[in-house]
Design goal:
heterodimer; A: five-stranded mixed sheet; four-stranded antiparallel sheet; B: mainly beta; seven-stranded mixed sheet
């Protein structure tokens, strides 16, 4: 399972774009990159998943360079409600029959400031 | 609405008592998981189950037990053998398509005194 490294915390003002980078130097060929968001006292929520280049949905964008050794979650124009912990996970996408443990690290605590 | 329910949201117990946390899903997902989260920490896997009547230990299974008699239900028992049971417990499920798009319940905060 590829190990991930992300900043422990970040601060941002409301209305700014926030970029959270995750490093995963040992990513395997079949691994996908997945990001979750967790608000205090709630379960994590799936935000976005990608394999290469760029993925965008209504919540965020995910940028993955060609070497796939890192990825960047981009949150456009954050608001106070985006204050949360963001987790980067890397692993096999398809359930091939063997279980691969899903590991949530400590994530990045994003604090949005008014 | 499909989803995962956990009950109760808050639970208080005396030390030495076993307690069972409920987790139910109506998403028709095969796999279910239990995680523990301590303040300021990430999630740690306790147990997981890929199909009915089968489950596997995660990273911190000692002091916990589970059952999977129905696809929809995956209760977790915190036994008196768990040395530090006070924590936030999260249940999740996923379809067979991806282990990484997990759907989480609202969690149960257990306090043992």
């Amino acid at each position: 399972l590829a190990k991930t490294t992300q900043p422990i915390s970040m601060d941002s003002y409301e209305g700014q774009e926030v970029n959270i980078t995750c490093s995963h130097n040992n990513i395997a060929t079949n691994d996908y990159i997945t990001w979750y968001q967790q608000f205090p006292s709630q379960g994590p929520r799936f935000i976005i998943q990608g394999y290469k280049t760029k993925v965008t949905n209504e919540v965020a964008s995910l940028f993955i360079p060609a070497d796939r050794k890192s990825s960047t979650l981009s949150l456009p124009r954050v608001s106070l409600s985006d204050t949360a912990v963001y987790y980067c996970l890397v692993g096999d996408f398809v359930n091939s029959g063997g279980y691969q443990k899903v590991t949530f690290g400590t994530g990045t605590k994003l604090q949005v400031i008014p | 609405d499909g989803g995962i329910t956990q009950s109760p949201k808050y639970l208080f117990r005396k030390e030495g008592q076993n307690v069972t946390l409920s987790c139910e899903q109506n998403l028709n997902h095969d796999a279910m998981y239990w995680y523990r989260q301590d303040p300021g920490q990430g999630l740690r896997l306790i147990y997981y189950s890929q199909i009915v009547n089968d489950f596997q230990k995660g990273d911190i299974a000692e002091g916990y037990s589970v059952s999977r008699e129905k696809k929809e239900s995956f209760p977790l028992t915190v036994t008196s053998a768990q040395k530090n049971p006070t924590a936030f417990y999260l249940c999740a499920s996923t379809s067979g398509q991806s282990r990484y798009e997990q759907y989480f319940g609202p969690g149960t905060r257990l306090t043992v005194t």
